[in-house]
Amino acid sequence: MNQARGGDVPLLAEDELPPVLEEGRNGSSNFLIVVDHAGARIPRCLGDLGLAPSELLRHIAWDIGSLGVARRVAAALDAPLVAQNYSRLVIDCNRDPAVPTSIPTRSEATEIPGNVGLSVAQSAARRAALFDPYHRHIGALLDARLAAGRDTILVAQHTMTDVYQGARRSMHAAVLYNRDRRFAGLVLEMLRRETGLHVADNEPYFVSDATDYTIPRHGEARGLPHVEIEIRQDLVGDEAGQALWAARIASALRDAQHAFLRTSPLDPQGVSP
To answer: Which domain holds residue 89?
Structure first.
């Protein structure tokens, strides 16, 4: 592990991937798909954060399958996609940087040696290199859509491990929200139409200001219709599973949008008239 740990040298070298992946910016859809934990990369100067390579392939490092699903959903809906290329072990892009777990020193039962004892400068370097560009990018895209008079429904795509702290999760997927359930409730209803599919309502997680950033900052604060979707990772670990779930989600989002528009016409400002 490089002892720089960010702060002493630029976090990303010029030949490394940028923090943000964007596709389909000019898509015709009202939807914007974002993936906060799409990548498992670690900036070169941070080495392996003191972890074995196998640990960096686990759910603690990224949302396995989330990008594959999101790309297919975005293509099906003709929607723009914005995703984070780097691991949440470096800095969690769906966690307020003011929260201690923004840069985790432990994830589930795994200690993260490269995150222990960071200086203020080292933590700030990670935020400046990865977190801020990602959220500036989302904010700028939303501003551009607003300026063009375009409506937006924000969809945050996540995945969850099938076994956490030794307990197996029974749900196949989950729909999450915080203060505003209007659109999320419709997505939940649409996904639950399929017999035999267990889709949880705000479980095993729920959106909050303490545990989430993307939905509170870009969805709730702007008054945009929004939803966060979790899928169990063992169901989307390969292309077949990703294609199946992308088709389900794209269909549910389309139908939820139609139902939403019957009762709450969209407004570019994000607030229903």
So the answer is: 20-263
